[in-house]
Amino acid sequence: MVFYFTGTGNSRYAASIISRITGDELVSMNEVIRQRITDPYVARYAFSSDRPYVFVSPTHCWHLPRVVEQFIRDSRFTGSRQAYFYLTCGDSTGDAARGAQELCREVELEFMGLSSSVMPENYIALFTVPSLDDAQGMIRAATAPIESAARLIDIGKPIEDTNGGSPLGVLGSRFNPLFYKLFVKDKKFRASDACTACGLCERLCPVANISLEEGRPRWHGHCVHCMACISACPQNAIEYGLNSKGQRRYYLSAEGRQKEG
Length: 261
Ligand SMILES: Cc1cc2nc3c(=O)[nH]c(=O)nc-3n(C[C@H](O)[C@H](O)[C@H](O)COP(=O)(O)O)c2cc1C
Known about the structure:
Blueprint lengths: L1 E3 L5 H13 L3 E3 H10 L7 E4 L3 E6 L7 H9 L1 E4 L2 E8 L6 H12 L2 E9 L13 H23 L12 H7 L2 H7 L6 E3 L8 H5 L5 E4 L2 E4 L8 H5 L5 E3 L21
Parallel strand pairs: 1-2, 1-4, 3-5, 4-6, 6-7
Antiparallel strand pairs: 8-11, 9-10
Helix pairs in contact: 1-5
């Protein structure tokens, strides 16, 4: 079973390739998490498979995103005990492999390794996203390592990371708790007059943190900084303070096409 969490499509892209090669079912953590929040009476966190569990997600502050860690902690996995991790990242997964290994120990899954691909940076709230052409090159370059990892997963071999463990990334990962405390907030999101109240931001938010009120999105204080709302908005009507002003938005569709406008 191949689970993916995604903000802007990179990890969905990687997960789709892994699922195609292994023949394993693709499950969107975004949808499951959202359903769980909006309908807490439905037990959607029990999964059963005789094949390994594969978790695909972005890297957030040199670790697995907290929302993914929480998903794994809150879920019950029966059948296979093996867990693989595939991360997409802007440049480094830092200490994510060690964190994933610790998490596996905690939830009694067997850690089979973490591997990763560098893909277009999506953190428009703090950084710059690559141009359309640069992003296209990165997506192309990321495909072969994803396919190689998928073949190893398919035959039950361990996988290893080539984008992690650098001294800067490992050092940076210590900043993770402070990062969530200081930066992962939604007060700076605003919709401009270009907003048409189409509701895509509301529907895409994996943690149901957005609602349309008087024709404009409102953020409710439990954002996980996935960047889906600001990046997918068809009108580019969402800004994050001054950081996003004048920047293009990066978003990769389920069909593997970049948003152009
Ligand atoms: C909140 C946040 C934190 C991030 N932290 C890192 C990081 O520590 N290292 C890195 O290489 N990329 C980092 N990135 C970039 C993403 O991991 C990368 O663009 C990823 O491919 C996005 O995947 P997605 O499209 O599936 O959400 C971060 C992005 C966000 C939004």
